[in-house]
Amino acid sequence: MGAASKLPNESKLSVKFYGSKKEALGNAVLHLTAVEISLDVDADRDGIVEKNNSNKASWKWGPNGHGAVLLVNCDSESYYKKRVDTEKEEISKVSDLKDMSRMILRTSGPTQLPEGYKLSLHITQTDAESVRVFIRCGPLDYPLVLNKEQLAAEVPYLGGNSELEFFVEGLRFPDKDFEGLVTISLSLLEPSDFPETPIFTDKVVFRVAPWIMTPNTLKPVEVFVCSTSDNYEFLKGIRKMVQSSGYKLKICHEYMNRGDRWMQDEIEFGYIDSPHQRFPVVLDSPRDGDLQEFPYEVLLGPDFGYVTRYAQAEEVSSLDSFGNLEVSPPVTVNGKNYPLGRIIIGVAFPTTAHGRNMTKVVQDFLWAQKVQEPIALYSDWLVVGHVDEFMTFVPAPDRKGFRLLLASPDAAYTVFTNLQNNGHGKAKLFQGKGEEISVNEILSNEEFRAENIYVQSCIDWNRDVLKKELGLDEDDIIDLPILFKVMAEENRAVAYYPDMVNMIVLGTNLGIPKPFGPQVNGSCALETEMRSLLEPLGLNCTFIDDFASYHKLLGEVHCGSNVLREPFAFKWWNLEM
Amino acid sequence: MGAASKLPNESKLSVKFYGSKKEALGNAVLHLTAVEISLDVDADRDGIVEKNNSNKASWKWGPNGHGAVLLVNCDSESYYKKRVDTEKEEISKVSDLKDMSRMILRTSGPTQLPEGYKLSLHITQTDAESVRVFIRCGPLDYPLVLNKEQLAAEVPYLGGNSELEFFVEGLRFPDKDFEGLVTISLSLLEPSDFPETPIFTDKVVFRVAPWIMTPNTLKPVEVFVCSTSDNYEFLKGIRKMVQSSGYKLKICHEYMNRGDRWMQDEIEFGYIDSPHQRFPVVLDSPRDGDLQEFPYEVLLGPDFGYVTRYAQAEEVSSLDSFGNLEVSPPVTVNGKNYPLGRIIIGVAFPTTAHGRNMTKVVQDFLWAQKVQEPIALYSDWLVVGHVDEFMTFVPAPDRKGFRLLLASPDAAYTVFTNLQNNGHGKAKLFQGKGEEISVNEILSNEEFRAENIYVQSCIDWNRDVLKKELGLDEDDIIDLPILFKVMAEENRAVAYYPDMVNMIVLGTNLGIPKPFGPQVNGSCALETEMRSLLEPLGLNCTFIDDFASYHKLLGEVHCGSNVLREPFAFKWWNLEM
To answer: Between A151, A199, A334, which is nearest B461 by CB?
Structure first.
């Protein structure tokens, strides 16, 4: 059969039987029907469902790879009676189809299949936890076909050259127990007195898109901060900087934040991407402070997704706040490319018996996304315990396109010693903040110095790990003059003056905690030092007063803000894994 | 510091301080000690632990890849009070070290570290489920250092140029919740009034070797069969064939098999491989018939490993027998290489509501090994439900190096029709077996014909899947003339006469169930047909009478035997994944 049949039993093969003396015995006619069947997806990742791609049943990473992509439908088509779309078993708005992957059953053949033959679409029990399939019956009619209650369903055969359109919905992200691959099969079943038998099966494979974080080097879209009864000065500083930079500012008001100002800690912005659709997705921390409702109630909406993980039978610690979850810019390490950067989290140092950690379900989730292979730093030496207390990344026009900024007590002692040597030993820190102290007093405090030597050793260990894991040279790192204080009760550290590394990065504009450092010739020596370190890179430093409303509460500008950024131009499926 | 110090505080840096009028103020001396530390493994996979490989902290597949390999220590060093070695927390015999991966801590520096400094070896809680570390204290003294009760341990610093030797033991195979990678870290800790701080950490990564199956095309080492009260004829046939082929024969006697003759079904032979050690490992089926004790009691021993999976809260079905677990020879499919072949299992057809399946824990295990990506066929149409009832592979000198043999009712009807046409319609099957039937009688039974059309459709579906998943052409497949009978009670099929595809393959010698087909000119027409199909490939057919003792019990030669084979020359870590 060289082509599909136009009519059932259209082709005939006549067989004549003869006896041994060549006498005619009888005649048999074999009726043949040829049907072309192809279950199709966008396996070449160009946004179009091509016909019968020879690689549609497998998945391969890389620019020469193949295999279709599925999004977790984790946004909410409507704000009214809001729910994440994956929690609904029906399609309530046609716009929801954009978040699904099209799948087309192309058939070619007679008007009807021979009697009793039928088409069955099917998935396995395991895959049904990760995927749901709808069929297009009309422009506004998309009934559910497959889900975990219905693993196989007969689908109509339309006859002639026809296309049946399906929409495939991803239900969950890759995780420890789910690599991300799902298979959908279509079988032609033959009638039989015995169980129906498949005579042909076609298969397609999807990979669920990972959740991807966005580093400081990506263009900001919108800045998020909280308004509280006591943070007017801070808000004013942020607003001025954001507006002059030309980005949007979104303020979370007190009825929603209930006094919880730590916008960095409750959420992490990321996105999901496919050849046909892309949208931001907020990861909600199991921290669950008073800001807890914000990501679901305010952020979740049409084309804005939501995902969370619930810590089970484990205590959630301060290390579960997302000031402890950052991502590097793109790097190459020993020849291995990380074009989407690497995730960075803070954990207990493993030789410590009773350290605090980021909860396992969140760590498992982060590792399972695979495309931004995480690095675990040691952050448990800090009272709050977040990596953003000692590190950040800023864009740079040269070298790798960025610098790693690290808090450095050593650098601070150098600045203070120079001040003393230049006759500014009596210059005061914290002027007007009611707890002034001179450079000389700081330098003469041996206990304080010992604490900072300890802090420096903790940061240095992380510095080594970051150099190794991100492939950095010394010249890729800038040490910022910051001092810490070790709190006697728990032998853990906090920033002594506003922690300048805990900044907000908006393009080349940096919003830095105003350090209230020693006043020399009418200006702050720490601000001067920061400018001299960062301005040569084309960066603009804005110092924002967060002293009373953030610093004294053990956080700073970065902890109190969050930035939604544009996604990477690089497509994750082009990664070589 | 350009080199390691020979003495503590060996290098000194003198700093002189001057006042503003250049008067000497004082003098400070900085004492420096340089220590070289490297935790080393065989990251280049040549069997030798090289020094400080720059890639030792990551793992990459392929001939240009890197990363050390760990074996699950699943053999038992002694037969006496036998236990799998992983269940022992101590090393009882030095020979056990061969099954572990060497890891060396190389240090260079003064006799002692400066006071209070120490070295700590550590692993994470998660990795501790998969790995254990021993240290060499003397030629016969290897105490445990790390396990899941002890995640970090101080290790001695020996001074000078010294090497401390560790042995790393893998505890579990890759599985659904374990990708196979483990990390071991070594930190230099600095004394402090505060928590001890790491000032340097070195890391190494291992991947646990997967369990690998061996296809029929690999050279046999030993053949296993059971002796029962009623299988003398069968044993005689097998013994003759095995001995003339020059392989070893191992008979499992009745006190051990307790009448359970299905040697194929209780176990599957495979192996694990590393650059330093390799040994066979038997996978014990959750089937657990009366042969249940055999793999643990008889096979497990020095350099013979054992692994099993226990079905949980799921009923074990006939599909859990390992006649339903096979592996193809090496293939290339759409440009993708499978140099270790692909695993083949049988499952229910997914559109069936209440089919039988291979239990999930075994399927998960097989998929997690990764290097022989499994293919699921449809075998639930058979009463016994094993893939070896309708398919096998034999070596061939041409094409892909093998042929796929498939049972084919169509091929059988062709043979029988030709016999009838050539005047042998009265030739009898089952001669001397007390249930003789003629070719004419078989051909005239329309119900029987309908059953075989149904069986052919089930095999044809699998044929399509195998062609697609193994990249086979028509010429790679040989259809063997075999008829089936559908049992009315459950609408599932059994072989009508001895199922010739269910053969034992020993190099080019095939042990085939003697079919007792129609006698034509003093020889069996089915045997003649088999020879004409297989002998042109250089294969020798030996027909073994398994009629009473296997066929009547719904199994055949393959079900009743098992073959331990040599491993692949190809190393699994050279796979491109």
So the answer is: A199
Q: A195 vs B352: CB contact, 8 Å cut-off?
A: yes
- Among B residues 379-438, those touching chain A with beta carbons less than 8 Å apart: 381
Residues B491 and B498: their CA atoms lie apart, in Å, by 20
> Chain-centre distance of CA B274, in angstroms?
13
pLDDT in tens, A289-325: 899 999 999 999 999 999 999 987 678 999 999 999 9
CA distance A363 to A345: 9
Tell me if chain B has a CB within 8 Å of the CB of A356: no
A334 with B195: Cβ contact below 8 A: no
Q: Taking a contact as any Cβ pair under 8 Å apart, which residues of chain B between 500 and 519 contact chain A?
A: none
User: What is the distance between the alpha carbons of residues B162 and B142, in angstroms, rounded to a whole number?
Assistant: 18
Would you state the structure tokens that stand for residue B351, as one six-digit string? 């559109």
Q: Can you say whether the dihedral through the CA atoms of A41, A43, A49, A54 is positive or negative?
A: negative
Spatial separation of the C-alpha atoms in residues B549 and B553, rounded to whole Å: 7
SS in 3 state form for B166-219?
EEEEECCCCECCECCEEEEEEEEEECCCCCCEEEEEEEEEEEECCCEECCCCCC
How far is it, in rounded angstroms, from Cα B263 to Cα B256?
Answer: 12
- Could you tell me the two tokens for B280? 């066979």
- How many whole angstroms separate alpha carbon A560 and alpha carbon A513? 11
A378:B198 CB<8 A:
yes
Q: What is the pTM of this model?
A: 0.86
CA distance, residue A184 to nearest chain B CA (Å): 11
CA distance B325 to chain A (A): 19
- Residue that is written with structure tokens 């010249």 in the block: A475
CA distances from A550 to A217, A232, A506, B191, B558 (A): 25, 12, 20, 33, 75
Of B367, A344, B500, the C-alpha closest to B358 is B367
How many residue contacts between A and B have a Cβ separation below 8 Å? 107
The pLDDT of B79-89, averaged and rounded, is 91
Q: How buried is residue B141: exposed, middle or buried, by Cβ count under 10 Å (0-12/13-18/19+)?
A: exposed
- The size of chain B, in residues, is 577
- Contact of B32 with chain A, judged by CB distance below 8 Å, is answered with no
pLDDT in tens, B269-295: 999 999 999 999 999 999 988 999 999
